[in-house]
Design goal:
This protein is an all-alpha fold and 161 residues long. The protein contains two helices and no strands.
Length: 161
């Protein structure tokens, strides 16, 4: 076989085997990309939900201002505990949002790697497709040459009789 197209490909069987390998790898990568895309969407939805909670807490905190209000000691103490709980929950939400954003960033990196792998396997599949076409043409030419030689031998044999 022509070295330009890979001397290791000796038969259609080899090419078909490698094409199947490429198709399997492409299917795996496409499945993984879909899975990671879904995971990324879920993380984005979770981040949005936590962000809405964070914003609601901010509104709650703003609406519960104790300035310009007259409160007795028990009411003041209760309001301060409530403010403290709201601020603590906002800190927790900030941490949760940061964790989810880090996970989403990692998922995007993983998806990008899978997309790179998918492109790699697509190129390989194209290469094997071209090799198959070249091998097919080479075999067709060899068969035509053999038929021509056989015909010439018959003609020469017929003339020599």
């Amino acid at each position: 076989m022509n070295r330009r197209f890979g001397g290791s490909m000796k038969s259609f069987t080899d090419i078909k085997r490698m094409q199947r390998r490429c198709e399997d790898a492409k299917a795996r990568e496409a499945h993984q990309i879909r899975k990671l895309h879904g995971e990324e969407q879920k993380l984005t939805e979770d981040i949005d939900a936590l962000d809405r909670q964070f914003q609601a807490m901010a509104l709650l905190l703003d609406g519960r201002g104790i300035e310009n209000r007259t409160l007795d000691l028990a009411a003041l103490s209760s309001e301060l505990r409530t403010h403290s709980a709201i601020r603590r929950r906002r800190r927790e939400l900030t941490c949760q949002i940061a964790e989810l954003e880090n996970r989403a960033a990692q998922v995007r990196i993983d998806r990008s790697r899978c997309e790179d792998q998918l492109r790699y396997w697509m190129k390989r599949a194209d290469r094997y497709q071209r090799w198959g076409a070249v091998l097919s043409r080479v075999l067709a030419l060899q068969q035509a040459r053999e038929q021509t030689e056989a015909l010439e031998e018959r003609i020469a044999w017929t003339k020599s009789r």
